Every structure is written in structure tokens, then in C-alpha cells.
Amino acid sequence: VGSRKLSTRHTKPHVRNSTRVFSLISFSAYHFFSVFLNADFFLFIRLGGQNEWVNRKHFLSHLNHTNMHIAFFHLNDILCSNIFKDEPCSKCGEGWEHHGRKCYYFSVSKSSWTESRGECRAKGGDLVKIDSREEQKFLDQRLKDIMNYPQDKFWFGLTDSAEEGRWLWVDGSLLDKRLIYWGYNEPDDWKGDYPDGEDCGRMGVKGETSDLNSWFDASCNVAHRSICEKPEITGQPTKASVQI
């Protein structure tokens, strides 16, 4: 499954122009949200018929990092729908791959587990949490296609760094024993090269796998590529809403 991008070679001129305009507006909108949350300025609002200056930190105290991205996704979808009309809109953004109702980003650069997670969060997602056998099957096959050699593995969102043997996903949920895809004799917390052991999950087998078992524990400090995940952009309202 590869990235789905609008082809410009056989695309109508007005669609190509709309694509450029949408990309520019979308990029600008995202950075507006970022500046809006971080710049030291005051917002002028009217409360109870009186004009008051309210510090943006107080005004946005309930608008957390996740809600900012939800708001951006909604804005992105509105812009897309109005610019493209009957043309298909990207559900993920450039560089991401759409599968099911999620978007995946397979990094090219290598970083530690913690650094990789930070990079995913900066992109509006997190290290991937595998919720089903179908998702594991998709990722297992996708990694076979893009791995360059057997040890070219990818970080995913599983760690037992808080308590040895208690594997948690990045959202804090406990690993479901019905959805475990550890490789043979894994996890082993091997301390041969790293005295602190192996507390982070990496995945990927270049050759054949037995029943999709392609997970391995590794030292969190080793540099690997990574898999980021975020929800697809849809026009449907989500359960989460932005409230101030």
C-alpha cells in the first residue's frame, strides 16, 4: 500500500491550482494554530457586556495539544471540501499513508524510541498502537516492502520502561494478551550490550514470519526508524470537541 497523492501529470489545470492553494492555506492554518498557542499576546473579548483583556494562557487553558490537532483536522477538512468540491481530498496529508481509518508515517531517519515518539507527536500523531490483527497484518507486510535489511526495524508504541514485564501502549493502556505478536523467545530483556535491558518495542521481519510474529524488544536508546499514527481527516463530527 503506497502513499496516495494527486497526480499532476494528467490532472486538470484547475485541480492542480486548487491543490497548490489548498496546500498553502492548510500549511498556513496549521502554523496559525501553533502561533496562536505559543505567542505572548492578549486576546480582546467581550464578557458580560464589558470589554476585558484576557491572557491567552488563561483563555486557552482547556485547549490542550490533542484538541488543537482535532481543531486543525476540522479546519483542514472544511478548506478541502470547499476548494475541491467533487474532487477527492487527502485524508492524511503529504508523506502519510492511509489505511482503514488511520494514517501512517514510516520514517526515513533513525532516532531513539523517545526521540521518535517526540517526532510523531510533532506531526500530530504518536507512535503506532496496534489495535487488531488486521492492522498488524498491514504493518507486517508494509515493513517487508520498505525494510532495507533484516535489522532495519521500526519503533512502535509499546514499552515496559515503567515496570519490567508490564507492557503499555503510548496511550497508557495495557497490552492485550489476545493481540500479542512477539517473535520467538521475545521479549527477552537482553542486557548483553545495554545494562538497562530492553524496554521498548520494535518490529519488522524482512523474510517470512510465523503467524505475523514480528515484534522484538530492544534498548530504547538504539536508533531505529519508526511508525507514526494519527486518525484520518473526515468530514464527520468526532466525539471530542474543542471547548474553551
Short characterization:
This protein is α+β, with helices and mostly antiparallel strands and 244 residues long. Helix content is 30%, strand content 18%. The strands form two sheets. Strands 3, 4, 5, 6, 7, 8, 9 and 10 form an eight-stranded mixed β-sheet that branches.
Give the amount of beta strand, in percent.
Answer: 15-25%
Q: What is the CATH level 1 assignment of the largest domain?
A: Alpha Beta
Q: Which architecture of the largest domain would the CATH scheme give at its second level?
A: Roll
- Give the total of domains: 2
Number of strands: 10
**Any idea what the radius of gyration is?**
21 Å
Largest sheet: 8 strands, mixed
SSE string, helix = H, strand = E? HEEHHEEHEHEEEEE
CATH superfamily of the largest domain: Mannose-Binding Protein A, subunit A
Helix share of residues?
25-40%
Low-confidence stretches: 1-12, 35-63, 236-244
What CATH calls the topology of the largest domain is Mannose-Binding Protein A, Chain A
| Overall spatial form | globular
Helical segment count? 5
Instruction: State the distance separating the first and last CA atoms.
Output: 39 Å
Question: How confident is the prediction overall: mean pLDDT?
Answer: 76
**Alpha-beta classification:** alpha+beta
